[in-house]
Amino acid sequence: MPKFLCVQCGTQYAESVTEPLKCLVCEDERQYVRWDGQAWTTLAVMQNDGFEVVPYEEEPGLWGLELNRSFGIGQRALLVPGDKGNILWDCIPYINDRAIQIVEDLGGLEAIAISHPHYYSTMVEWADAFNVPIYLHASDADWIMRPSDKITLWEGETFSITPDLELIHLGGHFDGASVLLWKQGAEGRGSLLSGDVIQVNRDRHYLSFMYSYPNHIPLSCNTVKRIVTKLETYNFDRIHGAWRERFIWENAKERLKASAKRYKKYLEA
Ligand SMILES: [Zn+2]
Ligand SMILES: [Zn+2]
């Protein structure tokens, strides 16, 4: 039986004889339904249609994976060095044999961790291909559209994947929204991988904090204050956002505080 993927957001659903009636991720007010109507595809169709995964180096030792063509919400994933292989941080909606070989050549996979449901995409395909666990925050369990025994739900405020890699729960964009601290990143000063739980702006000097990016629904000032206060206790100097080269290369902690201050100024003006 096929496992359909939503063309608009890239979420893969559990196997079904017919296409799902609707995509719950797109129907949510943080996303939107495709303008021409809900549409579905499958990995098999995409594999016959020329899709490929392309690797690139985001910072020394940190590799990005993206698709050669626009699909879904343009998800990219990062390969972060772990103890026995890489951690796949966030996920992309596509996989084929060549993609598996690319990741093997870069050191293989040890685990998958995902910031929030917009990146769940084809996580179970990736977990099955490498026989590795997927770590998701338990608060977002209702958004798992393709269940699997590879999924481990973690609860609470932090979860250490390895001594060097710590998941930090922030909430806001989603109840379970989390970021990954790579302590050895940025030449040992620490890199924070934020997905779009905290979004790096186009100027690469400021960050923003939104419940919905496509529909421009901001988070409250109290939520932003809670997020920034929580991150103050961690060491990091660089932030990698959700898209290629959307990073704050240095002084990221100061930029985070300045961004929260500016955000408050405009929201409470
Ligand atoms: Zn969708
Ligand atoms: Zn998102």
Strand content: 25-35%
Which spans have pLDDT < 50 for at least 5 consecutive residues?
A: none
CATH classification class: Alpha Beta
Work out the helix count.
6
Assign a percent range to the helix content.
Answer: 10-25%
Main β-sheet: number of strands, strand sense, barrel status? 7 strands, mixed
N-to-C CA distance = 55 Å
- Kindly provide the radius of gyration, computed on alpha-carbon positions and rounded to a whole number of angstroms: 18 Å
Structural class by helix and strand composition: alpha+beta
Strand order in the sheet with the most strands = 3-4-5-6-7-8-9
- Structurally, the number of domains stands at 1
What is the average per-residue confidence, as pLDDT, rounded to a whole number?
Answer: 97
Shape assignment? globular
CATH topology: Metallo-beta-lactamase, Chain A
Number of strands: 19
What compounds sit in this structure? zinc ion
Order of helices and strands: EHEHEEEEHEHEEEEEEEEEEHEEH
CATH level-four homologous superfamily name? Ribonuclease Z/Hydroxyacylglutathione hydrolase-like
Query: What CATH architecture do you see?
Result: 4-Layer Sandwich
